[in-house]
Write a structure and sequence with these properties.
single chain; 541 residues; mainly beta; 2 helices
């Protein structure tokens, strides 16, 4: 199904260029803004046509409900506390509040001890800031409140598990930084509402709330993010590659310094939050979150194992991540040897941990079919001694399907099945193999009952130079198959013809389609996270 000559051509290229790429350097430090508007000055507030307004907040007793069986407040009635003014909404009427001039932001306010307050203002992006033209710039609102702050923008307070700052509390007297827009338009209006908090809350001090600093920072598109383009080689084995990725496309390094990155999934934007990338570091037992606004934060610690003997494990953490049809996060846990789903209330459902009474090896990668059937691979790479681990209970590394609560074994043909993906019409399932001596992708016909049939060799890159076997696997909407492998990221036509290779500074290990149009390929590659713009959208959860 493939051209031997094309495979050899790529192999020769890899051999010649194996030493070209240097190690990835550390992320660049944060850059200074191109312009600043100080919202604690008359000049700054005049420039944005703003007016600060202020109100104290009281804690009041209210009716509520205890937790119900659904873990929501649907149980028996109770009494609890709330604040008396909820002023985050963009259309909240603050016209009767106290008007304060910018210099008054430094005044100590509220009542001391356990106390709260609100600061509100609207801003308008000016035509000019000195000689700086703000059109197209990224605008960041930075505020530091003594002691804590939460920031609403146009009536929204986005919340994401693992969030460390931004709209929510950053830390003791730490500045909150919120991206207001990445494409500023002169005349654009934005509503800001800042909730001030005295703290620490567990030991409320006698002092009061005041604003240490409040600015609008303007950045050109080239200075805000530590991301940077890196040396990239697009190896073309067939002219059709030009319709998939531009010959001059470049990988962008987004973050680095991880132990081993894997299992990425893109979380789409909602009405209250922009999209972001989740990815695993199985060696660090952590799921991280990357977003263009806040860069990297910890999303879930102990993501795959919390056992007392964790020191024995090389990869105890989570690996593959995906979303089901209801956008619930599904996680393959190496150390716990199971597949779990995270429910909206934070509790987990175990989808698979045993087959015929025996524990799974260490579920690796996973993909949902549109009817909710979940397929996953189960090599023993998460066990301390891998294939020779005495804790291994199953004699094979299987491909499984979970449907209607039943775990079904649907494949044992590969000794180390790893990545898997459906064709766009879901009639075929591709599975690749992590084995230096058998670097192959198999293709199966998929039946409604989850079973697989008519196995065939789709692609063989065993002869290609490079230490890596095959790991992550994805497809695009044209049916092209993307597999990490020796030398980089391989792109293969639906007919099994090699089209080319994307080669960067580090060996890739998995990928996810992201952004609004699904044409950005996010790549996890050893210690770093990268992305590259493609011409074709990918199939994603």
């Amino acid at each position: 199904m493939q051209s031997r000559g094309a495979v050899l051509a790529i192999a020769v290229f890899l051999a010649l260029t194996a030493s070209v790429y240097a190690h990835v350097t550390s992320d660049a430090p944060g850059m200074r803004p191109d312009a600043i508007i100080d919202l604690r000055t008359d000049e700054g507030m005049d420039l944005v046509k703003g007016q600060w307004r202020y109100s104290n907040v009281k804690v009041v007793d209210v009716d509520h409900h205890s937790p119900g069986v659904d873990l929501a407040p649907s149980g028996p009635p109770n009494r609890t506390q709330d604040i008396d003014i909820h002023a985050g909404g963009a259309d909240f009427d603050d016209s009767q509040w106290e008007r304060i001039v910018p210099a008054q932001l430094e005044e100590r306010r509220s009542t001391g001890r356990l106390c709260f307050n609100w600061y509100r203002t609207s801003i308008t992006i000016p035509d000019k800031i000195g000689s700086f033209d703000p059109a197209g710039a990224t605008v960041v609102f930075e505020i530091a409140i003594d002691d804590y702050a939460e920031v609403w923008v146009d009536g929204k307070l986005p919340l994401v598990l693992g969030q460390t700052g931004g709209h929510v509390i950053k830390g003791f007297n730490a500045p909150n930084r919120v991206v207001l827009t990445s494409n500023a338009r002169p005349g654009q209006k934005l509503q800001l509402a800042v909730f001030g908090i005295n703290g620490p809350l567990s030991n409320p001090p006698g002092n009061f709330i005041w604003v240490r600093s409040a600015t609008l920072d303007f950045y050109t598109h080239t200075t805000l993010s530590p991301a940077r383009f890196v040396k990239t080689e697009i190896v073309k084995a067939d002219p059709a590659l030009d319709t998939i990725v531009s010959p001059d496309a470049q990988l962008e390094h987004l973050a680095g310094g991880f132990l081993f990155t894997e299992g990425p999934v893109w979380i789409p934007a909602t009405a209250n939050a922009s999209g972001y990338l989740l990815f695993s570091d199985p060696n660090a037992n952590t799921i991280y979150r990357w977003s263009s606004d806040e860069q990297v934060s910890v999303f879930r610690t102990k993501s795959g194992y919390s056992g007392f003997n964790i020191g024995e494990y090389h990869q105890p953490g989570s690996n593959g991540l995906t979303l089901d049809m209801h956008r619930r996060l599904t996680i393959n846990q190496h150390g716990n040897r199971r597949v779990i789903r995270v429910e909206p209330r934070g509790n987990i459902t175990v989808l698979a941990d045993r087959y015929e009474g025996k524990r799974l090896n260490s579920p690796n990668d996973l993909v949902y079919r549109s009817d909710g059937a979940l397929y996953f691979t189960d090599p023993p790479f998460g066990l301390p001694h891998v294939f020779n681990d005495p804790r291994k209970e199953l004699p094979y590394s299987g491909v499984y399907c979970v449907k209607d609560g039943q775990v079904k074994l649907v494949g044992t043909e590969l000794d180390a099945p790893n990545g898997l993906a459906f064709s766009p019409d879901e009639k075929m399932l591709y599975v690749n193999n992590w084995n230096d001596k058998r670097k192959v992708i198999l293709r199966y016909e998929v039946k409604a009952d989850c079973s697989l049939s008519n196995s065939e060799l789709f692609f063989d890159m065993t002869s290609a130079p490079g230490s890596d076997a095959l790991d992550g696997l994805k497809v695009d909407h044209k049916g092209n198959v993307y597999s990490t492998g020796p030398g980089g990221l391989w792109i293969i036509s639906p007919e099994g013809k090699p089209l080319g290779l994307i080669k960067g500074p580090e060996d890739p290990h998995n990928m996810a389609w992201g952004d609004d149009d699904g044409k950005t390929l996010y790549i996890t590659a050893l210690t770093g996270i990268y992305r590259i713009k493609m011409k074709v959208a990918g199939v994603r959860p």
